[in-house]
Amino acid sequence: MRKIIISFCILFAALSLQAQSVNGIRIDGGNTPILVYLGGNQICLPTTTCFIANLNPGHYTVEVFATRFTRAGERVWKGEKLYKDFVYFDGRGVKEIWVDGRDNIRPERPGRPDQGEHRPGYGHNRVMNDQLFQTFYKEMKNEPFKDDRMKLLNAALAGSDFTSAQCLQLTKLYTFDDDRMEIMKIMYPRIVDKEAFFTVINTLTFSSSKEKMKDFMIGYGKR
């Protein structure tokens, strides 16, 4: 009788697992061994296919690097970056990402990402489009905690640039100058139209806050 009960429990567990739908992001490197990073964290050892299961709906920064298979105890080699994008996953099914030439791979911007220089038309293909930004804005607005908002914002900045108008909209999520200035300072390196950033600064309440932000921009440009 005990054996029958145990067998039934095993069968029930197996059927339950089959009934559960698997969802997540699948990254296929074809014949190329790859390393996959999600939100800056390595999530797999060298492999040709990596599946990130049971993700919550939301935006994720996905980076894929070429690598080679290693032996036990050998250090993992991180090679050329093959893919980087700010990916939205709706929580349903499997989102496929191909990085062996079958997908639209975005090139990295030349130079340091934190350079203060702005060149007209430079990097505009990385600006978050209006439709995606509205989705991102709603997610930011719905986050009840400041730390969670900052994590979401930093994840977005890792894969996208923004306009001054978009930054302005995000700063309006906050009431106090200190919070707004924090958003401005984080986003400023990724603003493509820095000549229009004065429109963001002018929304600050106090003259002292505006002066602090102007000093920040001047100091940033000298880096």
Q: In terms of topology, how is this protein built?
A:
Blueprint: H1 2-19, E1 24-28, E2 34-38, E3 41-42, E4 49-53, E5 58-66, E6 81-89, E7 94-98, H2 130-142, H3 146-157, H4 164-171, H5 177-187, H6 198-201, H7 207-221
Parallel strand pairs: 1-7
Antiparallel strand pairs: 1-4, 2-3, 2-5, 5-6
What is the count of helical runs?
Answer: 7
Order of helices and strands: HEEEEEEEHHHHHH
Distance between the termini: 76 Å
**If strands are numbered along the chain, what order do they take across the biggest sheet?**
3-2-5-6
Going by helix content, strand content and strand pairing, the class is alpha+beta
Helix content, binned percent: 25-40%
Oligomerization status of the protein chains: single chain
**What is the strand content?**
15-25%
Overall mean confidence score, pLDDT? 77
Largest sheet: 4 strands, antiparallel
How would you sum up the global shape?
A: elongated
Unreliable residue stretches: 1-20, 101-124
Question: What is the β-strand count?
Answer: 7
Q: Rg to the nearest angstrom?
A: 22 Å
